[in-house]
Amino acid sequence: MVRFEEDVSTPARLAGPGEGIGRDELSLATRNHGLPLEGLRYDVTPPGMHYVLVHYDIPYAEDDTWELTIGGRVDHPLRLSLNDIRSFKPVTTRVTMECAGNGRALLSPRPVSQPWLVEAVGTADWTGVPLRTLLNEAGVQDDAVDAVFTGADHGVERGVEQDYQRALPLDTALGDEPEVLVAYAMNGAPLPPQHGRPLRLVVPGWYGMAHVKWLRDITVTDEPFTGFQHTVAYRLRHDPDDEGVPVTRIAPRALMVPPGFPDFMSRTRIVRPGPVRLEGRAWSGQAPLATVDISTDDGATWDPATLETPADHRWAWRRWTFDWTATPGPHTLTARATDAEGRTQPLAQPWNRGGFANNLVQRLPVHCTD
Q1: Which stretches of the chain score pLDDT less than 70?
Q2: Residue 312: its pLDDT value, please?
Q3: Which cofactor(s) does the record list (predicted)?
């Protein structure tokens, strides 16, 4: 691969004191988008509202010529058309997907990258064939360690020209909890181009960087994968020279539908005095969701929200509600999720250089007026 100088592809950096969002970050923000928080009312996110992050360009794909190859440490290398993949028994799984950098723009100092606030999330019904079905068809050899997934999107990052690639350990790739999908449909329709048409990986419970879009190749290896997106990017580290810890499963998070109505520029919410139904969604990719607590006084006191009885969707968010009596004046509303293994959202966010796995509680300013 060709390496590029810094005038083409800059190294990772932190924003300086008082530095605002730059043109480079604004350019990323116009290409990518988050979920409008009022969209949390939908059990299943409409594709146009679901968050999107595209590292490079959206490849143009013709369904009738697309192929998925499976090779490496397998007994029977495969070359599969979309019709071949659709011939396997389909599986549909409802999955909440969240970007690993969600909340990055709220950190200080701010890692300079896609400037997410808290909206980089969505939930969809993904239909496809289980990854383990395809790998079993190919016959994974005994010395296999990783499955490496290559997308058709190609670009330069921190000076390194590359295809977008990620890997999963074989026990995850072949496992049934979660069951990884090679998906070709979203909410009952073919994948939209921005969501990976015609094929993408869906890894329930994992942050979005693992869900490789425009999937064209799976290579089974007998050594751990060391590609850029695996060992350089998407690591939790405090110093540039740290080896870091890989980003994997989604940390607990609760988000609130902004109540009332907004000011156009500031997005400050305005409500009338009296009963106000607060609602939102909460999820965790590490253990089932246990509780959601709500504060209407910026964390001074907390009360439990009512969680909807979980449906048969282990990897999807759950709706919560809370009845609040609004009184005149300013308020800061906060929601906090805790999972069944005791992981909860922090009130003060630990910092890392990439701005990853940032699940600081949402703080929503509201003004109650007559």
Answers
A1: 1-6
A2: 86
A3: Mo-molybdopterin
Provide the 10 A C-beta neighbour count for residue 273.
Answer: 13
- Give the integer Cα–Cα distance in Å for 197 and 256: 31
Q: State residue 265's pLDDT score.
A: 92
Residue with the two structure tokens 């990719």: 285
Nearest to 366 by CA among 272, 256, 255, 271: 271
Q: Which residues pair with 323 in a beta bridge?
A: 277
In whole angstroms, give the CA distance from residue 67 to residue 154. Answer: 17
Please, are residues 122 and 97 in contact by the beta-carbon 8 Å criterion? yes
List, in sequence order, the alpha helices (H) in the chain.
Answer: 23-31, 82-86, 131-138, 170-173, 228-231
Estimate to the nearest angstrom the gap between the alpha carbon of 289 and the chain centroid. 17
- The per-residue pLDDT for 3 is 59
What's the CA gap between 47 and 86, in Å, rounded? 21
The reported pLDDT for the residue numbered 240 is 87
Domains and CATH numbers, the chain: 23-246 (3.90.420.10), 253-368 (2.60.40.650)
Place of tokens 């800061």: 332
For 236, residues 6+ apart whose C-beta sits below 8 A from its C-beta are 244, 245, 246, 247, 352, 354, 356, 357
Question: What's the pLDDT at 33?
Answer: 96
Q: What pTM value is reported for the model?
A: 0.95
SS3 231: helix
CA distance 183 to 249: 20
CA–CA gap between residue 206 and residue 203 (Å, rounded): 6
